Description:
The protein has 14 helices and 13 strands. With 493 residues, it is α+β, with helices and mostly antiparallel strands.
Amino acid sequence: MIQLIFFLLLYFKTKPMLNKLLWMSLFLTGFMVSSQNDLPKNKAILKNSVSNHQSDLINISDEIWSLAETAFEENKSSKILADYAEKNGFRVERGVAGMPTAFVATYGSGKPVISILGEFDALPGISQKALPTKEALNEGAAGHGCGHNLFGAASLGAAIAIKELMELGKIKGTVKFFGTPSEEKYFGKIWMVREGLWNDVDVNISWHPSAETKADTQSSLALIDFKVEFYGQAAHASADPWNGRSASDALELYTTGINYYREHVKPTVRMHYHIQDGGQVVNVVPDYSRLWMRVRDTKRSGLMPVYERVIKMAEGAAIMANVDYKVSLISGIYELLVNRAGEEVMQNNLELLGPITYTDKEIAFGKKIQEVTGKDQVGMDSNIRPLELTKDHPGGGSTDVGDVSWNVANINLGVTTAPKGTPWHSWAVVACGGMSIGHKGMLYASNAMAMTMYDLFKDPQLVTKIKAEYKERKGKEVYKAIIPDGPPPIPKN
Ligand SMILES: [Zn+2]
């Protein structure tokens, strides 16, 4: 009402018609922003900011989608995001923590410091067009089968919206966007954590593309990755095999041991291996073999005894094949520390925004994917889930956001970017991430995260409450990054 009286006074005091029109349009813009979706005024301004950047964010996401760069080789993808942050007034530090594709973009100063994560790496071998049936964009190339093209763009959109609200003088403090590489292979965030990049941050926000929309109250699995190598002696496989000591024999004996051991681990334990080198040709006794081994469990405490055991098995296999062996740690990640106080804030904002709506064309696209992948043809599910109880054993995958969550209070979000039941890390996720179903989820995530960050900037007591829960959940446990000393394993070109 005050706005209306103020406007009428100015309107009738203003003489020229052109000025009257200007005042009228300013008033209408203000009115539209404050009544948008019945959002509180500053949240409506944030939503407006995201919407102003919408076409840029979609372009950024699509470019990263087309590039589909994998672990530590995301040079162009990282640059696209860093450049856009810089263009929007952020101070950008590139190549942090010894990783050329890691960066930090900062705006503002002082407390509170609220940060947001952005991933951008793809998965090898799942190139796909933005079509609901399997068809590679570039045969054998990588694809965004985890939706990280949407991940980075959405988070940057949220950070920029917050920056624009700071410019309007509505909130004070610092917003940081962390460009975090190689989530899929080496877990780049661990090196950033070891560098202490979250030491001055009060609360961190993260999200992940998903087949459902919810404030995420579940943890993720801890894991450890290591390499096992066997060194034997080469010989002709037929002329003098008795002179050979086979590294591939050792490798087979090793995996046999692992597969017998599966019967005796707890149901929460997962073990996977990828044979990277099992010899080159059939007529040579191979003198070298290598596999990448991974052990997971709900918590690190359950993981470590299994890890000790499977390391010992490498020695057993080497003794049997009469070869030498070497075990090298690659990296390991912590389970996620949930923060329910933070998730409640996110939940309120999801309920304010309401579910994503889809066109008939999008629903048909989703159903086609479900038909092809053998799922119920129900389309997308973007209903806001009620806040779930935190399970002791959540199952599912792992994420290096876990390591961040042991160093700063973390709030996590999942947003629908693919139809219900979509097989993850597959062509179907790539397809949705390159078209409007993915774009809608991305923009939605931007809004939800910007609004949640706003609540934190606005209410210091909320930040205190979230930090108190973080401290309590962490308890006496001292975090130590599970990575070897020295620099990250950046591939040499
Ligand atoms: Zn992912």
